[in-house]
## 1
Amino acid sequence: MRQDIKIYRNYIGGAWMGSPARRHAPNINPADASDLIGEAPLSIGDEAVAAAEVAVHAFHSWRQTPAPERGALVLRAARLLAERAEDVARVIVREQGKTLAEARVEVQRTIAYAEFCGGAAAAMDGITVPLRTPAHFGYTRRRPLGVVALLTPEWSPLALPFARLAQALVCGNTVVLKPALATPETAEWLVRCFADAGAPSGVVNLVHGLTDETGATLIDHPAVRAVWIGGSHADIAGARRQAEARTMRFMSEAMDVNPVVVLEDADLNLALAGVLAGAFGNAGQSHTATKRVILMHPVADAFLEELVAQVCKLRLGSGLDNEVGMGPCTDEAQIQQALDLVRQAQMEGAETLCGGARAQDEALAHGYFLRPTIVDRVRPAMRIAREPAPGPVLAVTRVESFAEALAHATRLHTVVAAGIYTRDGARMLRFVDEMNARSVYINAPTTGDEDQMPVNHDALIDFFSEMSAVYVQYGPGNGSAT
């Protein structure tokens, strides 16, 4: 092993520690695979266990820390991130592949939510309830769970882990973070913000490793009370089985086949801009990325002609180049999975309008670049309509009516995000009523998720805490109301 290669360390019990692991995963710049940034250890089980145990020890005092003080830690970490924003953005570009503009947006979004979450901690408790018994009242209060494991994905290497850390910490939990192997440098900067902000020893811990090894060890540890995971469907399925065996709390986020419907009365310029951003922003690597567009027949040809023209103008390259419009996929596996789906769709009768191949230009040949791809005439039964293609791949289905569009959009029952472009208020609201999606976007890109929305913030606060009821008698009363 070369001595000049950075070997990432774990952060356990307030100390940065070299790992005894003999296996390492290379941290490769996806825009140039010859650029080895460092190597992340595939940590052994003992390290994951040690992180969980120091988190248990730290929990007993951290849970007693008043919620406003826990929020203050998050606010201090956010301020440090703001001071380091440009450095962190450039790290994200180099190891994840976003453009610099996209990375800067991720950093600023992270800071904004951390400030919201840290400030909200002061008001994050229960309610007082008048009881039927005289001289009695009741109130509810939040209780932390204990140790939580965060297994985070590469598509949002800063915003997701920072937000989940903030949510878990303000609730009074201690955390063991296992970041994506593709983005260990970003994870290190993130954890340093919390460490430098004064996080007590053992409250925030970082362990590098594989999901089915290090992550599995954390899920199996008896002290770990909840696991949040983002990543591939295979990783999530394995983690879910483990968590269910222990009847522990479990939450996940994965890429989904998020649909956008464009009706015949839509503002086509607005729809084109939204689909372009939703499908090809961050090279299509987001859990809210647009993966299917459902077009009404009267506008389909004109819409696709202009969309293909705009997609073909996207300049590919390193995100550090300000002229670049789209960066690479994060790794080779994503390209191969995407190409498999495209090839199968072609064999089933779909038509590739653009892309569908790796970029072979001399300047791009050493990176993980997939040309932005649009696959037309996709039928609902095709695999590409049922499985999200990683990377910049958009599947197109043409329909004759709003009812048919709605049927196709709701075919998968539940998706992360869905959108519609129309001027018709009744059809907007019908779409909102019918879609089983966590987020619905009207005349807006599906990648506009805001963490402070209650469906995001409140749901995660509820996930990372438990509610308990307290009953108080302050006078003689008249006995039980029942």
## 2
Amino acid sequence: MRCPKCGYNKSSVIDSRQAEEGTTIRRRRECEQCHARFTTFERLEEVPLLVIKKDGTREQFSRDKILNGIIQSAQKRPVSSEDIESVISRIEREIRSEYENEVSSVVIGNLVMDELAELDEITYVRFASVYKSFKDVDEIEELLQQITNRVRSKKKNGVTDESH
């Protein structure tokens, strides 16, 4: 593994552990030349999964596209990078278990929204505002009412963020 600091091609593994709910191996490495430490992730190479976009075009599934969308939506929110990685791993696992070669971008977007609704309401609203391309204020108001009802229902049933 090439060192990100000096570019040397040999490193030693210091520590290995499972990550992302067992779907990935996280390795701490040390460069044999400059002794810089860095982290790598190893995951199973999956069969390419194609995403069918709204306009009918197809492109290869990308965790990074989901990651970037969630990161933008979660700016200045109490959402950790571990939370985001867990969300993405659950989404990818569900997609790969339910769909063999192709999946609609609508399915992916809805899975992301379902996960974000449970994770953080503000992050969910931010993501939904871009993903759903609201046409008017009434659509936004309807979404906010759904969130408000869900939050009230959780509070009424004694479910809080601390109990998750």
## 3
Amino acid sequence: MKLIRPDELTIAIEALEAGELVVVPTQRWYMICANARDNDACARVYVGKGRPRSKSLAYILPSLVAADELFIMTPAAIQLASAFWPGDLAMFLRWRDSEHAQQHEAVGVPNALVTLDSGLLGQLARRSRVPIAATTANLSDPTNTSGPAITAAEVERFVAESEINVTYCIDGGISPLANHLTIVDCTEPQAKIARSGVVHDRAVNAAIAAESEPYAN
């Protein structure tokens, strides 16, 4: 694995489009990325992490427009997207097209784990010609209390331990939040928090409640 600078993002994009794996920093953690339509590349992520196939990788949206084109956005999902995207919240959403969904099995079918990132990961999704699947750079080991990588040095240790074949890691310094995406299940009309994270539960509930409140005159 070679460390590259944030201004060398184009190199990482070319590697992804060629079926290789790259690691990108976020405010939360370093994320290992693959072409979401490349079953072999995504399988290497699962095997390297020891991640159960039942746990979806995250689909990194290129834009809000793409969210509406690809997924069924419930009123609650629209409110959450308006309040927190791009940002540190993800949603479980239903695919609009079942055939299209089957081409992205690693991020979930019939429901996908979807987010719109505000940093380098979002830039990667916007500029890439292939859809991006991502997950944290760490072994999926319940006995591992240190959590996902928050520095490039920790990514290097993960790669050495897992023997996963990562081509590039963008060195973005320290991820200051060291916390997970908040995940909200928006596959049904009544949205539910599936996992607490950076975006506080109270903020999520306030955004959802705003959808049903009339505007004051």
## 4
Amino acid sequence: MTSLLKDRIALITGASRGIGYATAKALAAQGAHIIALARTVGALEELDDEIKQIGGTATLVPVDLKDFEALDRLGASIYERWGKLDILVGNAGVLGSLAPVGHIKPKEWDEAFAVNVTANWRLIRSLDVLLRQSDAGRALFITSGAAHNARAYWGLYSTTKAALETLVITYAKEVASTALRVNLLNPGPVRTAMRAKAMPGEDPSTLTTPAELAQHIPALLAPHLTETGAIWDYSPGQLVKR
């Protein structure tokens, strides 16, 4: 275990699999205490076991991100226990329906916006004061190239990611005069369940693994980071600021 993030308190959404799971392990390996959010208790317990194996610690929070009142309570709980939050990683997301815009069902539309956009706003609303209590608060949200590359049938997912980017960049500008730094990461094609659902004919062995991507994420959350309001694109082996 190294110490880039020693004793930092890091909250990660969607921590039960994929990028969130790998990021939680990568931050724990750098010394952070992980607050892991996901719906699946069993997968969170597996994550906890792996973090313990590398000498790290975690707090497990089984929660549905659409339970917005629970996200409000989360902020109060973190304040009572730690009095601050050093790192927020807004990773959780859903693909939604790949369909013509006029065929998207209202329920699918509402769910995608609830998870991909509204939940992140509710997290900001709940945790902003805690991130400001940190000497070097860091927030990172996962976006997608789909936010800018409009493609037929991808309207729902693309629209939510475009909304998320606008939300996050606005937030970054609002806190620019503080010690808090807020950025976005576009991971590109990664070997996840969401990617397999979106691209069923793709050979997963050609894609970056979540673990490979996650090794680069601690640098975007380190106390020495100065950039804010940026979108970082991952191209195999490196991060490139857009």
